[in-house]
Write a structure and sequence with these properties.
Layout (H helix, E strand, L loop, with lengths): L3 H12 L5 H7 L3 H10 L16 E2 L2 E2 L4 H13 L3 H13 L4 H4 L2 H14 L4 H9 L2 H6 L13 H11 L7 H11 L2 E5 L8 H10 L5 E5 L9 E3 L2 E3 L3 H9 L2 H15 L6 H13 L4 H10 L16 H10 L3 H9 L10 H16 L22 H8 L1 H7 L6 H12 L5 H11 L6 H13 L9 H17 L7
Antiparallel strand pairs: 1-2, 3-4, 5-6
Helix pairs in contact: 1-3, 4-17, 4-19, 7-8, 8-13, 10-11, 14-15, 15-16, 17-19, 20-25, 21-25, 22-25, 23-24, 24-25
Length: 484
């Protein structure tokens, strides 16, 4: 039987960004229902995040490369007070996967993420239409090469196979007809017809918060003849096609299954998927309603779900650093950054660092392996990934310079908790990092804690850093630590 604290922890692991001691304490006064409401309504909290456009400058020179957006997003993961908003954006990024390497431009990736974040809780129909109109999506799936004379099938195929119906629920004829419906949407180069030097044009575009390549609709390139798609004949265009696909019963089942697997567990029971699909239908694809239904499902609170999901790199790296309250420091630095000013070096490096740690585990944000996104669950479990996660102990406690800020801060916290013996330190550290220990694991860690100096080590920063690093490296390697 789960206590209210256990339930809040479960909610924060799945719908948030970790359930460490300090994170849980922020939500405990709200209770379980209040925590659900707070997570599902991020718009009720202020958005204190950094301006992504600040990352498009380097020493007052335009540098709008897409990899800077990954650094910005990583910093946002650490500092946000609206965790489900970022978790949902990650879900949609995996679903509507774009590769920043092919897209290239930061402004296009910024626009894409803003659409995912803005529409990620609302009607799926709206989100689908807005994503299909994004320059990044049009460029990534070669829609800029398509016209009524020679439709390109890349976007049409992925729209059916990955974005709506799922594999096996359409024909090759449907792909061709969908591709005809999408014609007319393409990319326009900002400098077309002008004489502006490329470097100057890039600077102008960055100052104006524009991409060099922008989505546009060219009527002459659109096939305006009737198309027959999934047995329905009409003069489909992008919007009418998206509306039809969003309302399709198979889309409801496909998307509800995918949402459940992202937030709960793999291979949900057919009856459970049907229940969620009925919510989808009654709410016209309102994603927030489906998320509410997931939290209301008894299966979400069962043994098959709680602490049984392999942690993704976000669930691992971001959660660890958030458990140490790094977000407060980042928010403090961010408030001193004027609008339209280049980002501070310290802030850029912080985002770069967490993004690098996640990339070592196989998740390079904005650079998924292919259009299908990442392989989840067992895809995050390997000996190499575990080695990378074990190294977080040294990164955290020996990082931050000679001041050893995380070690000193954690040692001070331990003293407020009046730890008296090594096992108390182990228990507190497990609680801070939200690690569930068996008796034998606790005994192993207590032996290590004693060997590293025990309670006396808390009095000196380097000894404390060594103590915490030694314990955490063993803790981070434990099988239970890989699950959330």
């Amino acid at each position: 039987m789960l206590s209210d604290r256990d339930k809040i922890g479960h909610l924060l692991r799945r719908f948030g960004l970790g359930a460490g001691t300090f994170e849980v304490k922020r939500y405990e006064p709200l209770g379980v229902k209040g925590t659900i409401a707070s997570l599902l309504h991020p718009e009720k909290k202020p958005d204190t995040s950094l301006d992504p456009w600040s990352y498009c400058w380097n020493e007052n020179k335009p540098d709008p490369n897409s990899y800077h957006v990954a650094s910005w997003w990583s910093a946002r993961f650490l500092m946000t007070d609206r965790p489900l908003e970022e978790k949902m954006t990650l879900f949609w990024h995996d679903h509507f996967a774009l590769d920043g390497e092919k897209v290239g431009e930061a402004p296009m990736m910024i626009g894409y993420l803003e659409v995912l974040r803005k529409h990620g809780f609302g009607p799926f129909e709206t989100l689908l239409i807005e994503v299909l109109k994004q320059g990044g999506m049009l460029g990534y799936l070669d829609q800029n090469l398509s016209s009524r004379l020679e439709p390109n099938e890349n976007l049409g195929r992925e729209l059916l196979e990955l974005f709506t119906l799922g594999e096996g629920n359409y024909t090759e004829k449907d792909v061709k007809e969908v591709s005809r419906a999408l014609t007319g949407w393409t990319l326009h180069y900002l400098g077309t017809g002008g004489q502006t030097d490329y470097t100057k044009l890039r600077e102008m575009a960055t100052k104006g918060r524009m991409a060099l390549m922008n989505a546009c609709f060219v009527p002459a390139m659109h096939d305006s003849n009737p198309k027959t798609i999934l047995g329905k004949t009409a003069n489909f265009d992008l919007e009418s096609l998206a509306k039809m696909l969003a309302a399709h019963p198979q889309t409801a089942r496909y998307m509800c299954r995918k949402l459940w697997e992202f937030f709960a567990y793999q291979n949900p029971e057919p009856a459970l998927v049907d229940r969620l699909a009925s919510v989808w239908k009654s709410s016209n694809g309102e994603i927030r309603r489906v998320l509410e239904a997931i939290t209301a499902a008894p299966e979400f609170w069962g043994e098959k779900c709680v602490r049984q999901m392999p942690k993704s790199p976000v669930d691992w790296s971001v959660a660890l650093f958030r458990s140490l309250n790094v977000g407060e420091g980042i928010r403090a630095m961010a408030t001193a950054v004027p609008k339209d000013a280049p980002i501070k070096k310290e802030l850029r490096e912080g985002g770069d660092g967490i993004n690098y740690l996640m990339s070592l585990q196989g998740m390079r944000l904005l650079y998924p392996p292919n259009v299908s996104g990442w392989e989840w669950y067992d895809g995050w479990i390997s000996s190499q990934t575990t080695m990378r996660r074990v190294s977080h102990g040294d990164v955290i406690f020996w990082g931050g310079g000679e001041a050893r800020p995380f070690a000193v801060g954690l040692a001070a916290f331990m003293k407020t908790m009046a730890v008296k013996q090594p096992v108390d330190i182990v228990n507190q550290l497990a609680d801070v990092f939200d690690m569930l220990l068996s008796d034998s694991e606790r005994e192993t860690l207590t032996i290590r804690c004693t060997a590293a100096g025990g309670v006396k080590a808390l009095d000196e920063k380097n000894q404390a850093a060594n103590l915490f690093a030694q314990i955490s490296k063993i803790m981070f390697a434990m099988p239970s630590a890989q699950l959330c």
